[in-house]
Design a protein that fits this description.
The complex is a heterodimer of chains A (56) and B (325). With 56 residues, chain A is α+β, with helices and mostly antiparallel strands. Helix content of chain A is 23%, strand content 16%. Chain A is built from 2 helices and 3 strands. Helix content of chain B is 20%, strand content 26%. Chain B has 325 residues and is an alpha+beta fold. Chain B has 8 helices and 19 strands. Chain B has a 6-stranded antiparallel barrel. A 5-stranded antiparallel sheet of chain B has the order 3-13-12-16-17, with no helix packed on it. In chain B, strand 7 (149-150) and strand 8 (153-154) form a beta hairpin. Chain B folds into 2 domains: 7-88, no CATH class; 106-323, Thrombin, subunit H (Beta Barrel). The longest helix of chain B has 18 residues, at 7-24. Classes of the chains: A alpha+beta (56), B alpha+beta (325). Strand 3 (44-45) of chain A pairs parallel with strand 18 (299-300) of chain B, so a sheet runs across the interface.
């Protein structure tokens, strides 16, 4: 399994990582089957509850 | 001579067609046996176990399926016939049509600089949306922070597919060489900063991304409450991730979690649209021609509102670093 790359040390408000994978390696990885089966990434927060009773 | 069929023979043909479709496609399970209808002796029916049928129909099998008119031809060859008098007896009847639940999101034609992003986190492959933006390196893609980094761990196998449409990649696949995100997102998952930028490699001909697909201008530190058009490739039900969709609306603050500083527009796009661009809409700049000023970030269960982060100075610094790399 590909190990997550290590981010660079703190650079103020921005974090970044240089990826050392070759383009050929990544393109070979993404077969039609893998693209079709990739899961949609989603951030769904819980439904907000009703406010405190008795307050308008 | 006019050929007619009775209801019974028509349904038998349909049932036979269903059986043939299953068997000719490889017969994942044993064909069901037809049974005579007890309520109406002229009707035949079959019970089909739907379990596993959705899994069976992979994109490859759907593409390789034989057109149904082949089966219609075979039915005609069998020569089932009946008299017109039998077909026409009975009182006129009809049933009302129904419409599926409409979505807020609108279907769009592909846009050259908007696409899907694919990546791996841990051992799981994911898909999001992204947009090529104007930059000094002509190779920068905007997306969501949660599409490049989770709990401090960056994605691998990151690739941008502009103008993706039902499996087609008309501008190729662009692999990332660097990923940039606000430190507040990477270290703490702060929803205020759910934005990231990927810098992609040149293509196999040495061409740079925005020289090929174009790039959107960007805007930061703008007024709140603007009107936006958001794009993305929603994949979770009721969508299927094959094509581009959009939502348009005036942004309002997230009153559930005001500490995020985010804004929302009416939108029911689902998972897969994350990272898709929000363009400012003005009288002179509409649709995907507007300046990008946010991304699809999150929603609430049971609510049809898409929220995006406010692009202030921290996200501007992230863009500046990526664009100059």
């Amino acid at each position: 399994m590909q190990q997550p790359p290590e981010p660079h040390p703190d650079e103020g408000s921005v974090s970044h990582v240089d990826l050392d994978q070759s383009p050929e390696e990544v393109l070979e990885y993404w077969t039609e089957e893998r693209m079709a089966e990739a899961k949609p990434r989603e951030l769904k927060l819980p439904e907000p509850g009703p406010g405190p009773a008795g307050q308008d | 001579m006019t050929r007619t069929r009775s209801l019974a023979s028509g349904l038998l043909t349909f049932s036979a067609a269903a059986v043939l479709a299953f068997t000719s496609a490889g017969a994942a399970s044993a064909a069901p046996s037809p049974s005579d209808g007890k309520a109406n002796p002229s009707v035949a029916s079959v019970s089909v176990d739907a379990g596993g049928a959705a899994d069976y129909w992979t994109p490859e099998r759907m593409q390789g399926a034989v057109p149904g008119d082949t089966l219609a031809g075979k039915a005609l060859e069998r020569g089932n016939r009946t008299s017109p008098a039998l077909v026409e007896k009975g009182k006129p009847s009809s049933t009302k049509g129904t419409k599926g639940k409409p979505t807020i999101a609108q279907s769009e034609n592909p846009v050259s600089h908007i696409g899907k992003v694919f990546f791996t986190m841990g051992s799981t492959n994911y898909v999001c949306s992204g947009n090529a933006v104007t930059s000094g390196n002509r190779s920068t893609v905007a997306t969501a922070g949660h599409c490049v980094n989770e709990s401090g761990a960056y994605a691998t196998n990151f690739v941008f597919v502009p103008a993706y449409d039902n499996g087609a990649a008309p501008y190729g696949k662009w692999t990332a060489k660097g990923l940039y995100a606000p430190s507040q997102w990477v270290t703490g998952g702060d929803m205020t900063y759910d934005t990231a930028f990927a810098v992609v490699n040149p293509d196999s001909n040495g061409k740079l991304l925005t020289d090929v697909v174009g790039g959107s201008g960007t805007a930061f530190n703008q007024a709140r409450g603007l009107t936006y058009k958001a794009f993305g490739y929603p994949q979770a039900s009721p969508f299927n991730g094959t094509s581009l969709w959009s939502c348009t609306g005036k942004a309002t603050n997230d009153t559930n979690n005001p500490q995020f500083g985010t804004q929302g527009i009416p939108c029911d796009m689902t998972g897969g649209s994350s990272g898709g661009p929000w363009f400012i809409q003005t009288s002179s700049s509409t649709g995907s021609d507007g300046l990008q000023n946010s991304i699809n970030s999150y929603g609430y269960s049971g609510s049809a509102v898409m929220y995006g982060p406010y692009w202030g100075s921290v996200i501007e610094a992230t863009y500046t670093n990526a664009a100059a790399s």
